[in-house]
Design goal:
The protein is an alpha+beta fold. It is about 35% helix and about 20% strand.
Length: about 250
């Protein structure tokens, strides 16, 4: 009966072994997905670093650190690189900003290139806070934009237009967004979801957001995604960016 009811020490020991086996099985099952996330798509899969058309950036109206409004119309005719950050982030955001600072130097002669960093913490990241952050990275006043504004608009822009994940763990009532439009690459875009990257910030919340940067062409079409925390991915961004700069705007 001891083997059936697991009474006494033998039962506790067998229960612990069973729990360990279940944990190991779950870890082994999740391992391929973790490896895939770290490496990106495998050979034969669609690579989001390949120049294509993955979607269209919708209309938006945000505020630049200088206080001037910035809309999608202001960026039409420009090639731009978009990313989502917040100033008190200690994880991927410094890496993203350093990578974009490098691109600003390397493409200093590209007059029609814009670098666009959008905060996911608009409550804390006012225009003044973004201005100080921009100065830290030597951001050019007109070529590297730092945008803030309405939280719902920012989050829906990230989710619906750029198809990137962003979550404020402290927000019990996240802003509702429209159902994202269907896109031919939506099944592939599932691996854009960020891994957990928690950081305490001024409003005592926890943010998770994608570390991917998005290449947008002169017609506000999304053309490629690159991972800012992966040096090889950022090297592959350079020829993609040059290709978009060489393209003409559609008539």
């Amino acid at each position: 009966m001891r083997w059936v009811t697991f009474n006494g020490r033998r039962g506790l020991w067998l229960g612990a072994v069973l729990a360990l086996v279940l944990v190991l099985a779950a870890a082994l099952a999740a391992w391929p997905a973790l490896i895939r996330y770290a490496r990106g798509p495998a050979a034969g899969e669609v690579s989001l670093e390949k120049i294509a058309v993955y979607g269209q950036v919708s209309e938006f109206s945000l505020v630049e650190r200088s206080g001037r409004p910035v809309t999608r119309a202001d960026l039409l005719g420009k090639v731009w690189l978009a990313n989502f950050i917040y100033t008190e982030c200690k994880e991927t955001c410094p890496t993203q900003s350093l990578q974009i600072a490098r691109l600003q130097r390397e493409f200093a002669d590209a007059a029609d290139l814009r670098l666009v960093s959008i905060t996911v913490d608009p409550k804390h990241d006012t225009e003044e806070v973004l201005a100080r952050y921009a100065e830290r990275y030597g951001a050019h006043s007109s070529r590297w934009l730092f945008l803030t504004g309405d939280k719902r608009e920012i989050y829906c822009l990230a989710k619906d237009a750029f198809l990137l994940s962003v979550v404020d763990q402290a927000d019990q009532s996240p802003p509702p967004c429209r159902a994202a439009a269907a896109a031919p690459f939506r099944p592939v875009l599932a691996w854009l979801t960020p891994s957990p990257a928690f950081a305490t910030h001024g409003s005592q919340g926890l943010f998770m957001h994608s570390a991917r940067v998005v290449l947008v062409d002169r017609d506000a079409r999304i053309r490629a995604y690159h991972l800012a925390t992966n040096e090889d991915s950022m090297k592959r961004l350079r020829p993609n960016l040059r290709a978009l700069l060489a393209e003409r705007q559609k008539e």
